[in-house]
Amino acid sequence: MVELLVNNYHINIYELDDNNNTVFHKICEKNDFNNKKLITYFKEKGVNINRVNKDGDSPLITLSKYTAISEAVPILLKNGADINIRNNNGETALLASCKYGYYDVSKMLIDCGADVNIPDNEGNTPLLVSCYKERFLHNKDLVEYLIEHGADINKANKNGRIPFHEIVYYANNCLINYFIDHEADINKMDNNGINSLKIARSINNEDCIKNLISHGAK
């Protein structure tokens, strides 16, 4: 059926749009995965499933930005999508899905072998962006899943910020204790000499301050 449409209507499946998006990008943007044969057909016809657009996004990265539906991930991977390819900002599909708080997609990517520690160009890891977004997107489960699957809990970005700094800033005492139990460096300073205790004091969170001091914060 697909082949008939392409041949009869002279559809150019290799044509790029103004942002260099391929047919795979468009499928991922619209989350149009109802017909798996469509993906296979385009792949067999030589459409590059890893071709990037002007932003450096591969179809898999595009998918991770536009949908929270995890079932689409293995369809792309089965057809040769590079799970750890990075865009112009250094973001992988996993980092993009964590940035948007898509737990199911992030979990699927991790289960399929995504590297949980690849940072973007600013040194932000999937764990760090998940902690930064935790206040708004309630990513507790995602944060814990990343750590349980090897995310470096003390990896800093170019500003010296680590995930624990963000957790303290958003005053999530439940995650603070979880991080401490998983050996977060509670006295690590960023490039401006700010550590977790100074962050807690800056937001006047007495419970957090007492909790940190009781665990050796200085």
Automatic annotation (TrEMBL):
Q: Does the keyword Secreted apply?
A: no
Positions of the ANK repeats? 55-88, 89-121, 122-158, 159-191
Q: Which Pfam families match?
A: Ank_2
| InterPro entries, per database record | Ankyrin_rpt, Ankyrin_rpt-contain_sf, Multifunctional_regulatory
Q: Which organism is it from?
A: Piromyces finnis
> PROSITE patterns per the record?
ANK_REP_REGION (PS50297), ANK_REPEAT (PS50088)
Q: Does the keyword ATP-binding apply?
A: no
Name the keywords, alphabetized: ANK repeat, Repeat
Name recorded for this polypeptide: Ankyrin
SUPFAM superfamilies the record matches: Ankyrin repeat (SSF48403)
